[in-house]
Design brief:
The chain is built from nine helices and four strands, in the order H-H-H-H-E-E-H-H-H-H-E-H-E. The chain has 219 residues and is an alpha+beta fold. It has a four-stranded antiparallel sheet with strand order 2-1-3-4. A hairpin with a 4-residue loop joins strand 1 and strand 2.
Length: 219
């Protein structure tokens, strides 16, 4: 019985670990690799390899990494496939994989309304003041979706970002009867080093993926 218990425990540890290991997944879409965070990682690793005598420019490194990622994805998919029923039965599926690198160019969602005299913030991700619909927008699953919408490669995929804007417009039309328009957009910036944060420096960035919705259509 002890041997059987040890085997079952080992299988469980293997199944959960194999599922949790970093997976290429959507990363196999090379359009997503244009993100500045990804490009910085390739540049950094190209420099590290050069420092140990392995010269490889970032473009070549991307080709090598892509080939490895395709192979790894096939091996991992084959390894976890037999455990599919186990994951479903015991609820041990791992939707959040291990992070492979810090995200140095985050995109913060901003939602604003116009009542006729200019824009005012309703919701800003991680804000302590602009907290409209925070209960829904800060929910873990929603944060995961919004994170993806902040990447250009995801913004037009399946219209999900546009669907989020329509849903927000419907809620705003109900919550703010005098509002005319709703705007969604992302502020994309480079994270600051610790000394700049301690000095109170504000991050600099750019606005992307702006969408406007006239609220009269939702009343």
């Amino acid at each position: 019985m002890q041997h059987l218990r040890a085997v079952l425990l080992a299988l469980h540890v293997f199944a959960v670990t194999a599922m949790a290991l970093p997976s290429a997944g959507s990363g196999l879409d090379r359009a997503a690799w244009s993100n500045p965070t990804v490009q910085e990682e390739f540049a950094a690793w190209s420099g590290r390899l050069a420092s140990v005598g392995i010269p490889m420019d970032p473009a070549r490194l991307q080709d090598v990494a892509y080939g490895f990622a395709v192979g790894w994805h096939r091996v991992q998919s084959a390894a976890i496939a037999p455990f599919g029923p186990y994951y479903r039965l015991c609820g041990t599926a791992q939707s959040w994989r291990m992070f492979v690198a810090p995200h140095r160019h985050p995109a913060l969602l901003h939602v604003d309304i116009d009542r006729g005299d200019g824009w005012e913030p309703l919701y800003v991700a991680r804000s302590s003041t602009a907290t409209w619909r925070r209960r829904q927008l800060d929910q873990d699953r929603m944060r995961s979706a919004i994170f993806r919408y902040g990447w250009k490669a995801w913004q037009g995929r399946g219209g999900s970002y546009e669907q989020l804007g329509v849903w927000l417009a419907k809620q705003a039309a109900h919550d703010f009867p005098d509002a005319i328009r709703l705007r969604t957009r992302f502020f994309v910036y480079r994270t600051l080093p610790p000394d700049a944060i301690r000095a109170g420096r504000a991050p600099e960035g750019e606005w992307e993926a702006e969408r406007l919705h006239r609220l009269a259509a939702f009343r």
